[in-house]
Amino acid sequence: MLDKTLRMNLLYDFYQSLLTQKQRKYMSLYYLDDFSLGEIAEAFEVSRQAVYDNIKRTEAMLEEYEAKLMLLAKFEQRTELLTQIKEAIESNATPEEIMSMLDSLEKLD
Amino acid sequence: MLDKTLRMNLLYDFYQSLLTQKQRKYMSLYYLDDFSLGEIAEAFEVSRQAVYDNIKRTEAMLEEYEAKLMLLAKFEQRTELLTQIKEAIESNATPEEIMSMLDSLEKLD
């Protein structure tokens, strides 16, 4: 499992279009720009608790979307296989071997 | 633009996990199993209009998800590029050329 902050950054990358504008603001300030809950609360003139609750709910939503769509998991599988294909080409694998790896890549979708 | 039925089948493939159980039932009977609205209405003991409204709303939801996440569009781009890479290997492209196409594939994500 990735470090929580890195994972939230990645999930946010994949699913931010499904969030409300307020959720996007809070999440990007907290996870991308490293603002504290208190700083976000002050900037939006709401309570620290309100910011905390919103971010916790958003984190749960991102994990629910990932459980359903698995965009991050599939991205990681594709990236790993692509790395293997590049290594195979660098070690002079045969065209047949490369083709077979490309077939596997296609089947990941 | 793809034929409507084919497009709905593909969008359903990508986003069915985001639909309710009832939406999935109606959509799969209508688009995958080719039932008529009347047949679905009879099977679920609801009006034909209720089935029609549900399916129309679901179609709109699928298009909204695609507008936000573009899973079908990205899938089509990846598939097209993979086909080009395979063709390049078959025409004996250099390892450098294949590598560069694989880089493009990686950047699609």
Commentary on this structure:
The structure is a homodimer of 109-residue chains. The first copy, chain A, is mostly helical. Helix content of chain A is 80%, strand content 0%. The mean pLDDT of chain A is 95. At the A-B interface, helix 5 and helix 6 of A face helix 5 and helix 6 of B. Chains A, B: One of its GO terms (molecular function) is DNA binding. Chains A, B: Might take part in the signal recognition particle (SRP) pathway. This is inferred from the conservation of its genetic proximity to ftsY/ffh. May be a regulatory protein. Chains A, B: This is UPF0122 protein M3202_03645.
Write the topology of this structure:
Two copies of one chain form a homodimer.
Chain A: H1 4-15, H2 21-32, H3 37-44, H4 48-69, H5 71-90, H6 95-107
Helix pairs in contact in A: 1-2, 1-4, 2-4, 3-4, 5-6
Function (chains A, B): Might take part in the signal recognition particle (SRP) pathway. This is inferred from the conservation of its genetic proximity to ftsY/ffh. May be a regulatory protein.
GO molecular function, one term (chains A, B): DNA binding
Pfam families (chains A, B): UPF0122
